[in-house]
Amino acid sequence: MRTYTHYIDGEHQNGTSGRTSDVFNPSTGEKSALVPLASKSEVEQAIAVAEAAFPAWSATSIVARSRIMTRFTALLYKHQPELAKLVSLEHGKVIEDAMGSVLRGIEVAEFACGIPHLQKGEFSDNVSSGIDIYSMRKPLGVVAGITPFNFPAMIPLWMASMAIITGNTIVLKPSEKDPGCPMRIAELFIEAGGPKGVFNVVNGDKEAVDTLLHDSRIKAVSFVGSTPIAQYVYETATKNGKRCQAMGGAKNHMLILPDADIEGVANALMGAAYGSAGERCMAISVGVCVGDAVADKLIEILTPRVKALKIGASLDTGLEMGPLVTKEHRKKVMDYIQMGVDEGADLVVDGRSFSLKGHENGYFLGGSLFDHVKSNMRTYKEEIFGPVLQLMRVQSFEEGMNLASDHQYGNGTSIFTRSGAAARTYADKVEVGMVGINVPIPVPLAFHSFGGWKASAFGDHNQFGMEAMRFYTKVKTVTARWPENTIAADFSIPTLK
Predict the structure, then answer these.
(1) CA-CA distance, 108 to 465, in Å (whole number)?
(2) Burial class, 51, CB count within 10 angstroms (exposed 0-12 / middle 13-18 / buried 19+)
(3) pLDDT at 80 over 90
(4) Which domains, ranges and CATH numbers included, belong to the chain?
(5) 321 has which bridge partners?
(6) Alpha carbons within 13 A on the beta-carbon side of 220
C-alpha cells in the first residue's frame, strides 16, 4: 500500500505530524494509500520555502516563464493517460471522463503559455508636456490553492498554472480523498525545468487550511468546494487581509421549452445529470419542464435510459458512470433520495439497490430520477452532488426562469429551445453566472473564465482566463518625466498641460 508524502522545495517529504488519512479505491472499497495530514509547522515550512523562491521566480523574465510553462504543458499531454488513471483510481470517474477532465486542466496551462501577451500593461505617451504614464501587472507573492475531491487534476491546474505563470509561488492543499494527481503534476513542473520551491503540495485537513488562511505570508487564496466551506474560507481569508476567490456549491437548472427537441434534451440530461456520478458543480440536477406534455414525454424517454445506465469499475471502458468517491458520500446521497420520497416527490427510478457484480464493496449507486419536485422541498433547495435528476413542472417560460433566478445557488444553467428570442432573453435575464443555450454543461474554455453568482461564489474574480490573470497580479502605475532642464517647484495638484 502506498504512503503519500508532501512535495516541498521540489522534494518528497514524509509527514511528521503523526496524523494520516486513508485513501480508498471507490470501485473496490479497498484502502489503497495513506496520506499525511500536515501540522501547522509543516505548512509553515512550505510557505517559507515558497517565500524564499518568490524573488528569483518573480524576477525571471516573462518569456522564460512562458517557455517553462510550454514544456510543462507538453509533459502534461504526454502523461495525460497516467494522470487520468490516478483520477479514476482515487476519485472513481470512468476513464474516458477522467481523460476529459485532465484535458480541461491542461487547456488552462496551455492558455497560460501566452502570458507575454496577456500580462502586458498599458502605456500612454505625452499625457502632459514630456510626461508618460504606464502600468504594470506585478505578482502578489506566495498564494494558496485549496482544491476539491471531484476534479483532482483539472482544478489544481486551473489554480497553479495561472498563479505560477504570473510570477507567484504557490502552496497547494489538495483534497485528502484523492491526493495522487496533484502530487504528480507538481513533479512534472520540476521535470519541465520549473525552479524548486515555486510549486509546493501539502496534504492536510482543516489544520492545514486554517494555517494557510491565517499566515500573513499568504497573499491570496483560491478555493473550490462546498458553499459553507467556501464562505468560511472567504470570510477568514479576507479578514486576514488576503485576496480570495472561493467557489461553492450549485443547483443547476435546465429550462426545457415545448419547442425543444425532446430527444436531444433527454440525451443532454443523461450526460449532464449522471456523468461523473453527478459529482460536478456544473451537473444539471434539475430539469424544469414548461408544460406537463414536455415532462410526460421526458419521463417516458428517460426512465428506461436511467435504468439502463452503463455502470462499472472506473478503469473499464465503454461506461457511462462509475462509483461515488467515498462510502460516506454514497450514504449522504442515499439519504437525500429517501428525503425526496418523504417530502412527496415521485421517485420514478430508484438507484439505491444497484450493486456491481464482483465489486459489491465499491461505492456504487444507480441513477435516480424524481418527478413532481416542488420548490419548497429541501432536496430541491440543497445540493445533492450525486446521480439524482429532479424534474419540475411549470406553466410558463417566466416561471421556469424565476426558479433558476430565485435559487440560492447561481452557478450554471441551460435552456433548450428553438426560439432565439427566448434563448436571448434567458441568457440576458437569468440570475446565474454561466448560461448554456442548447448546451447542457456550459463550462467556458480556458480563454474565458469560470464562476457563478450568489451562494455559488465568493469574491470578485473568477477562475482561469483573464480573470485569473487579474486575480494573481496587482497593478502598479508609473508617471514618468525626463526633463532636459531643472524642474521648478509646483505646489498645485498635477494637471494636464
Answers:
(1) 8
(2) middle
(3) yes
(4) 2-248+456-478 (3.40.605.10), 252-437 (3.40.309.10)
(5) 311
(6) 25
Point out the catalytic residue in the list 113, 181, 244, 281. Answer: 281
Residue 1's SS3 state is coil
End-to-end CA gap in the chain? 74
Catalytic (active site) residue 181: no
Cβ-based neighbour number of residue 382 at 10 Å:
15
Tens digits of residue pLDDT in 441-459: 999 999 999 999 999 999 9
User: In whole angstroms, what is the distance from residue 358 CA to residue 362 CA?
Assistant: 9
Residue 134 to residue 126: CA distance in whole angstroms = 11
Name the packing angle between helices 62-78 and 180-191 (round to 10°): 130
3-class DSSP assignment, residue 219: strand
Say if strands 346-349 and 368-371 run parallel, antiparallel, or are unpaired: antiparallel
H/E element holding 412?
A: strand 412-416
Q: Give the burial string for 306-322 (b: 16+ CB within 10 Å, else e).
A: beebebbbbbeeebbbb
* Coil/strand/helix, residue 446: coil
CA distance 285 to 328: 20
Taking only the tens place, the pLDDT of each residue in 100-122 is 999 999 999 999 999 999 999 89
Residue pair 463/158 in contact (Cβ under 8 Å)? The answer is yes
Distance CA 375, CA 352 (A): 24
Q: Please report, to the nearest 10 degrees, the dihedral formed by the alpha carbons of residues 443, 84, 12, 47 taken in order.
A: 0
Mean pLDDT (whole number) for 352-363: 96
Give the dihedral sign, CA 453/454/456/460.
positive
In sequence order, the β-bridge partners of residue 477 are 135
Give, in order, the Cα–Cα distances in Å from 435 to each of 163, 411, 438, 450: 26, 9, 10, 11
Sheet order of strands, 473-481 included: 122-128, 131-139, 473-481
User: What pTM value is reported for the model?
Assistant: 0.95
- Strand positions, DSSP E, 214-265: 218-224, 243-247, 252-256
Pairing state between β 388-394 and 368-371: parallel
Measure the CA dihedral 188/189/191/193, to 10°.
170
